[in-house]
Amino acid sequence: QVKSCHLSAALLGEDSEISQEQLYELLKYAALGKCHNAAQPSWCRIYHQSHLAGVVVVVLHGMSQLHFYRFYLQFRHLRRAFRHRFTLAPSANFPVSLYGEGTNLKPQNTPQGLTSTSSECITKSSDLQCDPIIQRYGEKKQGLTSYTLTLEEQKKNDYPIEGSPGCKGYISTECDQQRTDSSPLFGLDCEMCLTAKGNEVTRVSLVDARGQCLLNELVKPERTVVNYRTRFSGITRKMLLPVKTRLSDIQTRLKKMLPHDAVLVGHSLNSDLQALEMIHPSVIDTSLLFARSEGRRFKLKFLAKAVLGKEIQCEQKLGHDPTEDARAALELAQFFIEQGPTKVAELNLEMLLTAEKLAEVSQNKAVLQPQGCGFQEQLNEPPPLSKPCFLDCLQVTGQKPLLLGRQGSDSSGLCQSNLSTSNKQILQRALEDVPLSKFSIIQFSLGPEYLASHLHAGLPEKVRSKLTDMLTIYAGPFEENFCMKSVKKEFGRCGPIQSLTVVTETFQPYVCIQYEVLEAAQLAVECLNGAEVAGSCIKVQRPVTAAMLDCNVLIKELELDVENEGVIYVAGLKKSLTETDLQEEFSQLKDLEALFLPKDLQSGKHRNCCFLKFQKTQSALEALEAINGWTMKGSQLRSRNALAPGHLWRWIWQMNHSNEKQGKHIFYEKMEQLSDSEQDLRKKVKKLDQHIKKLYRSLQNNTLCVVLFPGVNSTHGSQPGLGLMGIKDDEGRSAC
C-alpha cells in the first residue's frame, strides 16, 4: 500500500507559500525518483515513490488563488478531493518556468554560439517579409520618433497615462511630446520588493545616451517589506536600514534631471513607471521594439547577448544590477535605430534563441545523461532554474510526457502538438491518453474571451470586498453612554480585531467590528448574539448585501473543506503567552499534531488566537468540547472549527492590508443583479470543476495529482497562485 504525499506541519502556517523551484522539486522527484539527482522535496515527502502509478498536473490557465475563493462554492470537487493546499508564488510565464517552452522551429544546423554569423543563421530576404519586426516597422531605417510608443500602444501595454483612473496621485515628469529624431535618450530601470501595498521601488538607475550613470539610488519603501526578492533585486534588509530616500525624493530628482524632450528607454518600462508612480509621454520599450509573433517577448538577458554580445544578469551575482540593465536597454534601442529593422531581422533572433536552448541542453546531457539519449522536444525559452529541462529528463527515462492544451490559451507553446478548441475536447483526449502516460500535463482554460473581459480585471476588488464583509459584524443597540472598552474587550476574546468604529446613523448606537480572521467574526455571531455586553442585550449580525446572501452556505462549506479536517481555532489567548507556553498548555490534548500561532506580518507580534491541528477528526472534536470555557492564565478561551487556516489566513491578512477598499457600498449596489456574463462565468467554472472530477475519477489509484492555479504576475500587480495536491486512494480522494 502506497502512502500519500505528506506535507510538513509548517504548511499549516506562514510557510505555506511554495516557490516555482519547490514545485519543480516535487514534480521531478515524483516522476523520476532518485534518477537524475532527483531528491525528496524539501517541503513535503512522498513515501514509496517507486509505486506511484503516474503523475498528472492540471493547469488552470490564467487563474489565480483569487479565482478559487471567488468561485469557492462552484469548485465543489476541488475543495473536497484534495487534502493538501498551498499558495504558489506567481510566475510571469507559467508553465514555462517549470517545463521550458515549446517551438516548431527545427534548424538543420545548430550554431555553437549566439553570435554565430554562419549562413544557416541568416534569414533570406524573401523570408524577411514574414518577420514580425519587418511587418511592424517596414524595411527602411527610420528615426527614433518612429519607435516611440503611441498613446494607444501605451494604453494597451499598461503604461501610466495622464487622467487614467488607476494613475490618481501619479507625478508627471512634465516633459512634452515635442520630441524629434535628435531628442536625448535615457535608460531607466528599477528594482522592486513586495510590500503590503504591492510592488514598491527599492532601487532606481538612470543612464544618459553615452551610458554614463546619472542616478543609482536606494529607496526606502513606504510600507513594511513582505518579500525583498533578493534573488532578483539584490536588495536585502540590511541594505535598506540606513536609507532615508523616499519615492517622492526620486520623483523630484527625475523631474529635474530630464529635459523637456527626453525619451525614456527600458525593458518592459511600464513596470518601472508604475512602480515609480510617474507619467512620461515619450518611451521606447525594448521588449516591444524587438517584436515577436503572438505577443511574446524576448528577455533582456537574451537580447543583450544576442544583439550586443554582452553578458548581463549573471548567476554569480546576487540579483540584477539596474544600472547594467538600464544601459543594456539603452544600447539595444540605439542599435535598432542605427542599424534599422532589416539588419535586426537578419539576426534571426528566433533561431538564435532555439540554438541557445539546444546548446544548453547538449551541455546538460554531457554531464547528466547517458550517451545516445535523444531530445525530441525543442524548447524555446531557457528555464529559470539552473537544472536540466524537466521534460528532457522525462524523455531520457523513456517516459514520453502527455501535453494537452487549449488553442488560444497556451502562450508558452507547451502543448503545440496537442491543441484542442474546447475544455470538453481536452477532457475527452485526457480520458483516453492519460492512462497510457506516466506523466501528463493537462491545461484547461476559461477561454481568451474571459481573460480579456472586465470580469477578469475586476476580480481582486470583488474578492476583497466579499472577504471584508465576511470579516465584519455589527453589534447593538447600546445605551448612549456605553463603555467602548468593555465592548472591545468582550469582542476581542473572539479573535484579533482589525478596526472598531461606532455607527451613529442609527437611533441608538451600534458598533462595527472588522476582524482579521474569519473564525473570529463567526465566533462573535455564534457566542455574542443575544448576549449582554456593556449593560445592553445586543444583536450581532453581518452586513446585509447581495454578495452576503450566501454567507451561511459558504461558512458551512468552509467547515466541511477537506483541508480543515482535524483543525480547530482557539481565541482569547493572552499575548504574553509564547508558542512554547501554548505547546505546554495544550500538550494534554490527544493526537495534537501541530500548532500555528498567527503573527502580524508588519510588527511580527503574535495575535490572541491560534490554530490546532489534530491527527484524527474525533480528537479535534473532543478538544473543541474541552477548550470551550477553558481558562488559561486567567483568560477564558473560545473555540470553534477552523474556516481558514494556513495559506488562506496569511492571504486574507495581505488582502486587507494591501489597499484601502473604496466605494464598497456603491459596488454592491451595482452587483445586486448579476450580469448575464457573470452568471455564465459561474456556470463555466462549475463545468470546469466537473471536468476535473471526471478526470480525477478516471485515474488509477496511487496517482499523484496536482492542480495548479498559476497566479498572475503583471503590471497591475501580482496575484498568488494556488496548488492542490494528493495521491488518489481507493475511495477516490487524496490520501493523507
Describe the protein's architecture and organization.
- With 736 residues, this protein is of the alpha/beta class.
- Among the domains are: 6-97 and 390-449 and 678-728, no CATH class; 142-339, Ribonuclease H-like superfamily/Ribonuclease H (Nucleotidyltransferase, domain 5), CATH 3.30.420; 565-642, Alpha-Beta Plaits, CATH 3.30.70.
- It has 29 helices and 32 strands.
- It has an eight-stranded mixed beta sheet. Strands 7, 8, 9, 10, 11 and 13 form a six-stranded mixed beta sheet that branches. Strands 18-19-17-22 form a four-stranded antiparallel beta sheet.
- Strand 26 (631-632) and strand 27 (635-636) form a beta hairpin.
- The longest helix has 23 residues, at 676-698.
- The chain is globular and about 80 Å long.
- 42% of the residues are buried.
- Residues 471-545, 566-644 form the RRM domain.
- This is REXO5 exonuclease.
- One of its GO terms (molecular function) is exonuclease activity.
- Keywords: Exonuclease, Hydrolase, Nuclease, RNA-binding.
- InterPro entries: Nucleotide-bd_a/b_plait_sf (IPR012677), RBD_domain_sf (IPR035979), REX1-like_exo (IPR034922), REXO1/3/4-like (IPR047021), Ribonucl_H (IPR013520), RNaseH-like_sf (IPR012337), RNaseH_sf (IPR036397), RRM_dom (IPR000504).
